Amino acid sequence: MSIKRILTLLLVALLAVSLAACGEDDPTPTATPEAAAVAATDTPAPPTETPVSATNTPAPAAAAATNTPAPEASVASSFAAPNDILKSYRTKGQFLITTTFPDGTSAAQDMQLEGAYVRADNVYGSDELFQMTINEDSSVETVAIYKIGEWVSANSQGEWITVGRDNAGLFTSMSDIFTSFVDQFSLENEGATDLGEEVVDGVTTNHYRMDDITAFERMAQMAPDSAEVIETVQMDVWVAKEGGFILKYAIEATVSNVTDTDSSGAEVLTTQSVNWSYELYDTNSDIAIELPADAPEPGAISIPGFAEGEFPVPEGGKMAPNMIGMPEITSELSQEELVTFYTDSFAALGWSFSGDFGFYEVTKGDASFSMFIDTDDSGKGRAQVFVE
């Protein structure tokens, strides 16, 4: 399996773990939201603020490492969380893999991240923004995630999903490919070279460099029996002197003997270069995170054919957006009682209600939507509404 596939699987795994941890409700029977589908594509263009051309492959890390001084005495290997130290910051990251085929042609998969964090006076302690752009095979996919107050609004390719923040683990972890492994920079144990103090975007840092191949293997989750060969690795880390958090990292690696498919569909052995970077900037500056004007109002529920507040809900029940932003009705009724309630309610309102095995189509004139009625963890009936 090529390293680009491994790193893509890393992101998919992170999203899967996040999905499993979303609240206490069972996952909905629908497919994963579009935001996850975009993230799961083969990896990714550098952030607009730090462009990197796929043809400009950095010099091999091993060559650079031979000119570095011997490692200094022990360096701390645990880092503070930026959120515990800073009141605000912006982020940018890139994940770029360039594959070179035997005939000399190349292809790139490129992901760019831009984001922001602001400490806020709400129960979550912050407002946050993540924007990802994924470029591959002349296609471009975009995802933007806004965590503001009690809501999360996600936009994928122009389509919006708004969910309660308690049920948005899938979306809140999409930047983990850039941040989840920073503790694996074990500076003390992996012979980090101290390159001295550097000022990065106004922040004084200590700059460290490593060329430990085993550390990169862990980050890429490469199988022990992989036939791929990591030829060179260079990992640079900038740690803020005040606060002890990682302000920036940059990873460059070259991997050979990677199996891939060429333009004719044949399996060939290729060489891949990896450029993986992340940086915090504009630290402790005035940053405001706001939804774009075209975003739907958080918490608003729209069902075709029904004005707000008119959709039938059993007495004592409630309707709220579920984890993918669709309306969900919960009540004290059993599953069978809930089916009966909607059979009678829609008939009285002139709607057709037909289906079986929990899946139902609801239609009146040109308006239509689907429903899935099952039970929640407590055994009570639950109705989920799916609209275009």
Describe, in plain words, how this protein is organized in 3D.
Mean pLDDT is 78; it is low at 1-76. The chain folds into 2 domains: 3-281, no CATH class; 318-386, no CATH class. The protein has helices at residues 3-20, 34-39, 61-65, 82-85, 169-172, 176-179, 213-220, 335-348, and strands spanning 88-100, 106-119, 126-136, 139-148, 151-156, 159-164, 193-200, 203-210, 229-240, 246-261, 267-281, 318-321, 327-330, 352-356, 359-364, 367-375, 381-386. It is built from 8 helices and 17 strands. The chain is of the alpha+beta class. The longest helix has 18 residues, at 3-20. The protein is globular and about 75 Å long.
Annotation keywords:
388 residues; 6-stranded antiparallel beta sheet; 8 helices; 2 domains
Question: Can you summarize this structure?
Answer:
The chain is of the alpha+beta class and about 400 residues long.
Question: Tell me about the biggest sheet?
Answer: 11 strands, antiparallel
Please identify the oligomeric state.
Answer: single chain
Radius of gyration: 25 Å
Helicity, as a percent range: 10-25%
Mean pLDDT value: 78
Q: Give me the strand/helix succession.
A: HHHHEEEEEEHHEEHEEEEEHEEEE
How are the elements arranged and paired?
Elements: H1 3-20, H2 34-39, H3 61-65, H4 82-85, E1 88-100, E2 106-119, E3 126-136, E4 139-148, E5 151-156, E6 159-164, H5 169-172, H6 176-179, E7 193-200, E8 203-210, H7 213-220, E9 229-240, E10 246-261, E11 267-281, E12 318-321, E13 327-330, H8 335-348, E14 352-356, E15 359-364, E16 367-375, E17 381-386
Antiparallel strand pairs: 1-2, 1-11, 2-3, 3-4, 4-5, 5-6, 7-8, 8-9, 9-10, 10-11, 12-13, 13-17, 14-15, 15-16, 16-17
